[in-house]
Amino acid sequence: MKILKIILYVVVLLLVMIIGVVAWLFSDSGNRFLKNKITEIANKEAPIGLEFTHFKLDFGSYAFVITDNADSKIALSGEFDIFLNTKAKLNAIVTDLSPYESLLGMKLNGGLSFNGDIVKDSSNIDVKAELLAFNSVINADVSMVDYKPSRLFVNSKDGINIASLLYFLNQKQYATGQILLNADMDISNLQAPSGGFNIASQAIRPNVALLESDFGVSLPKDAIKLAIQGEAKNSANGGIIVSNILASSSYLNIDSKGLTLSLNDNSTNGVINASLQKIKASGFSLKDKLGLALTLKSDKINNQQALISINVITNPILVHIEMPNYAPKNIVLSGENLSLKEILHFASLPYDAKGNINFGSTISNINTTNMSYKIQANVKSNIESLVFDELNLADNNYFNADINGDSKKIQANISSNLFDSKMEAKANLENYAPTFANINLKNLNLQKLAKLLNYNANGFLDANVNIDDFTKLNGKFDISSKQINITKSTLNSLSGMEFKKDISFKLDGSGKFNNGSGNGEIDINGDSIALSLNDIVADINSNTYGVNFKFHTPKVEDINPLKMNLNGKLSLSGKAGLRDNIPYASLQNNDFGTLNVDFENEKLKLVGENLDVKKLADFSGNGKIIKGGKLDMLANLDIKSKDMLKNLNGNVLLRGEKLELYSIDIDALANSFDSATNINLYDIGAMVVAGPLGFVATKGGSIGKNLGGMIEGKTAIRELNADFNLKNGVMHTSDVAFSTGKTRIAALGAINLNTESFQNFSIGLLDDKNCAKYEQKISGTLSNPKFEVTKSTIENALSVAASLFDKIKKGSGDILRKPKEQSNENCTPFYRGVVK
């Protein structure tokens, strides 16, 4: 009995201690202890600044509020009984999920809120919650029996916003639309649940512009319909989930067959079939449907495998991927007896072909952490024929390639006898940068190569390029051809110009480089062209490149790519290149006098001395109009590579003497200005702006139409001066005039080269006091000028008309003033320049 009393005392003591501890925990000091201890443990496990801003634990009730560094709040409150049954409310507002990135292992944008009711009755728990996130509402109901999961119900009545979900998952807005989610499953056995789920959308709309900019993939604007039906079942090996996937649009169809996920070992088996059409990628467009069959096969979680069969032609292209732990480890690509004809048809290339291609590639030992791998690949092709535009480009030829190496170093060997040639090429790459390359090409048939690219050329080419060390740019090259002919259509297509004839020439070139610098030369010689490129220098260390050149053609009309009607010989010499990516050039010509052009540091200087105008006229096809004279030219301009016209500044001066013009008598034209009402000073004043060639520009234009051939003859221009200042692409006249001895015409104002328009521009026919007898204001554009007849012009026309018809009546003096040339003693001079 004594022992029982002792035991009873001990039990009572323990009960008193427990009751005391419990009572203390419910006190303020006990609450503080619990609060601090829980906070310490929580922040040790999750260092995100968790803190209880409210902590109250009483007999039968509790209320807690937790915050984090981002002022997110989680509130839990409710009541409980002695058996710890409870009814509680959980409210959470997480404003920013970024602090939880380290815990979740992924970056999430934005926040979420959570409202729910938790009911615990004995060993049964029921949680009903409403999740608000990514502009969507998801309702969930989870039941537990004997503390084990029993039932799961999930529903998104109004759908899940795809764009917001993508943003939430830290992805770009690649699609918009709504996804409906519904799941009702018995999860009392997590290894073998039962029930089903549905995911569906009537209209997922891809962001076409974003997909094209990010991935180069162009899609129609059609929406995609999606339906995923899943069913959880029991099997002999445990629980499985069998799903069917259907997705459709005008350019996409996907369906799955027997896609099964084993919950026992997380293995995946099944087939997903897809077909694509109307899709463009990097400029390539699918001509026919592209079929894909993705077969998933695995026996356990650490041995996932996928086999992709790509059906673009009769024989498939196969891709086998081994993915232990869902990370790619080995990839094998292969294609056997692929029809060359079918491949070209699929690529929409207009060739008729016979032959086949075989290839195999193995990428092994893949490590996605440091992106290392080993690679072995080969391509073997037999090209029986390749016909384009009735020309057979191949005749039982081959093209073979072998690639071996790893992520650090790759070797490639290529051999071919296409286009009647023998080609051998070798290259080494280290860290994806070339270190060595050798190309040896013999007897390349340019006609067949050009025809393959839809161009026209003839000739055979030999070339050898050997670069021993790319890092130091050590190497040499040789290139030669006995005769190359390029048709004018090909020249025009490549250059965007207008060549008039085919060009034929012989080609020789060679060069040698060492330690990043070296020199070479290339000579092009033909009946109509001789081009010598000497001292070709390149120094990658100082970023300097240059070449000296000499050019000559006995008949420029044979190689002229411009619309101008040029004739005769032309010789040019000089140099050009780059220094720190800034171009420079120097050019000399002595065919028409002395002409030097220098461009360096974005400054252009042009000096032309004693230029023979007759030779220039003959060269430009205007020898019948301009017969003689001399010109001097000087230009100093600042030319920027960006917004060239807007940043064009400097001055231009053109001086001419004893210029002879035929087919036009400017003096007679000026004297008859009163009666020729359709004649504009602009017609003859064009010469003031651009010199004698300015007059040539009006040939067949307004002068010819207005004169009707009435005023013909010749003109001797005694003196011409065209001095312009340029500021931000606007040419301002400084001293612009010319004189025949009897007639003097000048120009004032500006021409805006940016807009090709006149600004406050006038042309005046001068008297001996530098005043304008006639003045014409010009506005509009260079291609469509508009003329304004000034008051002085009207007065003179009326005076002359009155004199001619002898109808001056009393009082007419009040209406018709004297001609301006008779009353200009006090006139304001129109011109104050050097031309007398």
From TrEMBL:
It comes from the Bacteria. The keyword Membrane applies. Keywords: Membrane, Transmembrane, Transmembrane helix. The chain crosses the membrane at residues 7-26. This is Outer membrane protein. It comes from Helicobacter ibis. The lineage of its organism: Bacteria, Pseudomonadati, Campylobacterota, Epsilonproteobacteria, Campylobacterales.
